[in-house]
Amino acid sequence: MNEIGARPVRDVEQERVNEDRPVSNGVRILWGICAGFLVGVFLRSVLPIGDAYAWFFVLLGAVVMLSFGRRNGFSIACGCACFAAALGIVRMDGAILVGDPAFDAKIGQKVELIGIVSAEPDVRDSQVRVAVDVSSLASSTKPVSATVLVVLPAHTTVYYGEKVRVSGTLVLPKSFDAGAAKTAKGGSPDPSRSDGVSGREFNYPGYLAAQGIGYELDFAQLKEGSGFAGRRIIAGAIAIKHLFVSGLQRSLPEPQSGLAGGITVGDKRALGKDLTQEFRTVSLVHIIVLSGYNITIVIAGVFWMFARAPRTMRFGAGVLVAIFFAVMTGFASASLRAALMALIAISGEWSGRIYRPERALALVAAGMVAWNPYLLVYDPGFQLSFLATAGLLAFSPVFEGWFSRVPTKMKLREILTTTSSAQIAVLPLLLYESGNLSIVSLPANLLALVAVSPAMLASLIAALGGLVFGTLAPIVGFPAYVLLSYILGIAHALSSIPFASVQIPAFPAWILLPVYAVLFGYALSRRGSLNETTPT
Predict the structure, then answer these.
(1) Do 389 and 360 contact (CB within 8 A), yes or no?
(2) How far apart are alpha carbons 186 and 478 in whole angstroms?
(3) Do residues 366 and 38 make contact, with C-beta atoms less than 8 angstroms apart?
(4) In angstroms, how far is the first alpha carbon of the chain from the final one?
(5) Fewer CB atoms inside 10 A, N or C side of the chain?
(6) Three-state secondary structure along 490-527?
(7) What CA–CA distance (Å, rounded) separates 345 from 299?
(8) How confident is the model at residue 292, as a pLDDT?
């Protein structure tokens, strides 16, 4: 199934006409602003530059515009890109997380903190990780302001919005070996589970800073929890998710229940170390979290359900579902990106305007980075989500030609095309971050993705059955059990193949730039040649 927002909503002939139209100055300016802003944020993220460099880009932009003329669309776009780069530098500079002196004085010491749980707890197999907006130290009446990642023992019960008092050792986050460290379900790194050395350093402080977190509380204990001070809309979305998961647990055994919760509502309960590793080995980990692909399936399903409903009701339902999933996941990068692009696509179809997904992707990327500049360099979820979508846009026309003889039954050609397009786009970054090269990735995705859509629908029915039918729920959940078992079986069988994945030696980050330049340059050149040879 194609991702909503990843393809134009229009007929093929109209698409060809618009592909051949010359690029307007407005479009050039849009691309210049988006690209320039992202470059500015990137430069300030990796280099210790400040306002002087921002003024340099402002001066450079003015020189470009004055030298080449205001009527030259290309020069205007370049000038706007320079201005936007200056703005990106300033935005990132102003977003740098600054520590609280009261906390800095307590580093390495055991402290007791009072605050509010600011996000849904991340429940893992060995610990519970909780972001807490701290308002005060128990030993002081002086107010403080900082967000701390509190690492609690497994099975600790804590809720979003709860007022808590916790104790533990206050530390600063440290970078760790990325290739050796394991990740929990959901893709977030867990430095406590490192099992070796690969030479790939993960900037863990930057990753936490993207979530507004500047400190960690290790070996923590929950002393007291009472009251609620969170946002009702977020708490409501989380409560609906937990109710849904409870229905799944009544209908399905583990690990099918855990997989169903992951693919439908992004439940972060661990599948277990062994199963999670199997999905990682065959590059299927993206389906056990609520990714943009999963959200797309849900929104497309809503459109199908309301196909005969009034237009207002159909589009309104799509908007509500997109917003709900973004809120429910705590505005995680992948779900937020999918939701925003879906909203743009829905508004484009509503207004009757031609929708260009590549422009929507650029706008969403620039908008999300403007909101949180740390995402661009320090959030792997943001990077992989946008690269996968860019891969769908750039490489799908190429792979559609290559796989023209693949049968269309059960959407095999579509799945093969979209999977190959996304995989080739994210592969260089994945190799840089983890070094894990899955030899069976393509067949694993081709075999598993066929069942994801029906498994999500069957899981929805199973959850509702669990809430309504009580002891008869397993009967209602049997179709979901079969489909989920099939997906688990694919992961287990292919991961058991000798050399199903190999470890690539670490390489420097700068190599990614020429690699992606070649990849997307080839895709654009092929796309241009395909447009030239397509009959009109």
Answers:
(1) no
(2) 26
(3) yes
(4) 26
(5) C
(6) HHHHHHCCCCCEEECCCCCHHHHHHHHHHHHHHHHHHH
(7) 11
(8) 64
